[in-house]
Amino acid sequence: MFAAPAAPLTRRAVLRTAFSAAVLGGVAAALAPVLRARGPRQTLTPAPLAEETYRGRHISVDPVAAVVHIDGRPLHVMRRADGSYLSAVNHFQSYETPLELARAAVDELGTTRLASAPPHHG
Prior knowledge:
Elements: H1 11-37, E1 50-54, E2 57-62, E3 67-70, E4 73-75, E5 77-79, E6 85-87, H2 98-109
Antiparallel strand pairs: 1-2, 2-3, 3-4, 5-6
């Protein structure tokens, strides 16, 4: 069993090898920061719900998701571009936190209960 004679190195083969090495080096350089940044993700523990009784009404607020319940019924909350909050109870006043908004909604509602279903925008 004899080995076949090696093909002579041509200019085309040398250039193809150099080009392939350059492309692989460029891809490796581009992906290095991405691969270096990959590490174990930090898990965030959810913030505890803020719950309180305000003027005889039970308020629960999830400040991260901006979800507000008054006596177990959902209050429709909207986040403004400046970071403040509006509610369906009063569209004309904005509040810094969802808890402030919930207290103001209780003040506005008085003894009236929220509707059981959130408003539907359709």
